[in-house]
Write a structure and sequence with these properties.
Elements (H helix, E strand, L loop, with lengths): L1 H21 L3 H8 L5 H20 L3 E13 L4 E8 L10 E5 L3 E6 L4 E5 L9 E9 L2 H9 L9 E7 L2 E15 L4 E14 L4 E2 L2 E5 L12 E6 L4 E6 L33 E6 L5 E6 L3 E8 L4 E7 L5 E7 L7 E2 L41 E3 L5 E7 L2 E6 L10 E7 L5 E8 L4 E7 L4 E6 L4 E5 L1
Parallel strand pairs: 6-10, 15-19
Antiparallel strand pairs: 1-2, 1-6, 2-27, 3-4, 4-5, 5-6, 7-8, 8-9, 9-11, 12-13, 13-14, 14-15, 16-17, 17-18, 18-20, 21-22, 22-23, 23-24, 25-26, 26-27
């Protein structure tokens, strides 16, 4: 038995290092061969590889992204050179990651909590590589329950990062064990939205709990939002998804007509399906919009006082939304799950039609008193990050079907009234998780989670 155990470990470690150093696109490699491995064993193997890789990352002082190719994007309104930099390590440790920046540094945090930085002045010129230095943090203290025993840790527990006023804010979904749920009146495994805060340092950052939404969810899924953005009046913005309560089997029962939990996205007493403003000094918070499914992309324009957000629909109906003059006194409702241009998963199978009783997904927002999206996608594009570069709106997509506009960078002309026109789609054949614009060096950064790559557009 011992011999078998050690032999298995040797095989796993050997496979790990072979793939890590000899396979450029690790995620593509696993996608090719995963069907040969039973699902239960695949989850265990992937989680084990992530844990092994996390240990190797924390022992390093830096991560080097090496240049692998150059290309360009060309259209009437958007012409950019692209340089791709790859570090295969990150295909195992997330594979998600998110950017932030201050006046001197670009920061990257992986889905499993590794925080890195590179100086902005080192990112000019014809670079052969980008050298990121790791920053020591105590974030593992908040991720401990995931790392003990979890089949979702490798997906992503980190949901966003923001630098403001020499402080760093990191959005996570925190897992609690045997937490008492006052709604179900039972002790159970519990998942909650949370934001951590620490004083900026390039050596070591001690993170403290900054903001927790005390709404316990019994099952983890990726419909959680969690994106952060700068806001006015010493505040930040924070998106909260609906946890898929109208779609996930964990929340659905034909014998329970309240499976959608009274449409939490439409109820002010619930934090789910909302966008919040949070004061960073006194931690007070207000809901400034509701009726969201999974709001993931978030951008705020201070000059015009406008929020642009993107959100995943159910099956179809991804949206780009605009909130003009946002505040708690100018509350906007974007309709979900009363209105959506998508359908429930499984439609039109008769077995799922009961979902439409509480979540009808009407094909109009305005007719029912809600704000219409400025753009929606049928079929979905797997919409993710959003940002603005000069007069261009940049929208990222995930998904897996290039013909539907997935795995692509979408661009629009955007005028002074924030009206969209001239839609272009640039296929990259990779899932784009984040878009970060650094105007001081006139560069756009993309994070491609398919193979742990950074792309610089200039």
């Amino acid at each position: 038995m011992k011999k078998f155990f050690f032999t298995s470990l040797i095989i796993i470690f050997s496979a790990f290092f072979f793939v890590k150093y000899h396979v450029t696109n690790n995620t593509e490699f696993f996608s090719t061969y995963k069907n040969f491995i039973p699902y239960e064993k695949r989850i265990i193997l992937r989680a084990l590889l992530v844990k092994i890789n996390s240990l190797s990352i924390f022992k390093k002082d830096d991560l080097i992204f090496k240049r692998i190719k150059k290309t360009s994007l060309t259209s009437n309104n958007f012409n950019k050179k692209l340089t791709f930099y790859n570090n295969p390590t990150l295909s195992f440790s997330g594979p998600r990651a998110y950017f932030a920046s201050d006046n001197e540094n670009l920061y990257l945090v992986t889905g499993t909590g590794v925080l890195l930085n590179a100086r902005l002045d080192s990112l000019n010129g014809n670079l052969d590589s980008i050298n990121f230095k790791t920053i020591e943090t105590n974030i593992d203290d908040y991720l401990a329950e995931y790392k003990k025993n979890s089949d979702v840790f490798f997906t992503s527990t980190i949901k966003g990062v923001l630098i403001k006023n020499d402080k760093i804010f990191i959005s996570i979904i925190q897992k609690f064990k045997n937490k008492y749920n006052y709604i179900t009146k039972k002790s159970e495994e519990c998942f909650k939205h949370a934001i951590l805060q620490g004083n900026m340092s390039l050596d070591k950052i001690i993170l403290d709990s900054f903001f927790v939404i005390d709404e316990c969810r019994k099952s983890y899924n990726d419909y959680v939002g969690g994106t952060l953005a700068d806001f006015k009046d010493n505040k930040i913005l924070y998106t909260v998804g609906d946890f898929g309560v109208c779609e996930r089997q964990a929340y659905i029962s034909k014998n329970n007509t309240e499976y959608c939990e009274q449409n939490n996205s439409q109820i002010m007493k619930s934090a789910l399906g909302k966008i919040f403003e949070i004061d960073i000094e006194n931690k007070s918070s207000n809901i400034i919009s509701l009726g969201h499914d999974n709001p993931q992309g978030l951008y705020y324009n201070k000059i015009n006082d406008i929020i642009i957000s993107t959100e995943h629909g159910p099956m179809g109906g991804d949206e780009i939304n605009i909130n003009r003059f946002p505040s708690k006194n100018n509350l906007k409702n974007y309709g979900y799950p009363i209105s959506s241009y998508g359908e429930h998963y499984g439609f039109p199978d008769p077995s799922i039609l009961f979902k439409y009783k509480n979540a009808p997904l009407y094909k109009s927002h305005k007719k029912y008193g809600f704000v219409e999206p400025v753009e929606y996608f049928l079929p979905s594009i797997g919409i993710s990050a959003v940002n603005v570069y000069k007069n261009i709106l940049l929208v990222a997509s995930l998904g897996n079907d290039i013909d539907e506009g997935d795995l692509s960078l979408h661009t629009y002309d955007i005028n002074k009234k924030f009206e969209l026109s001239n839609h272009n789609i640039f296929p990259l054949n990779q899932r784009i998780r984040d878009i970060h614009v650094v105007n001081s060096i006139n560069k756009i950064f993309l994070y491609l989670e398919t193979n742990g790559s950074i792309v610089i557009l200039e």
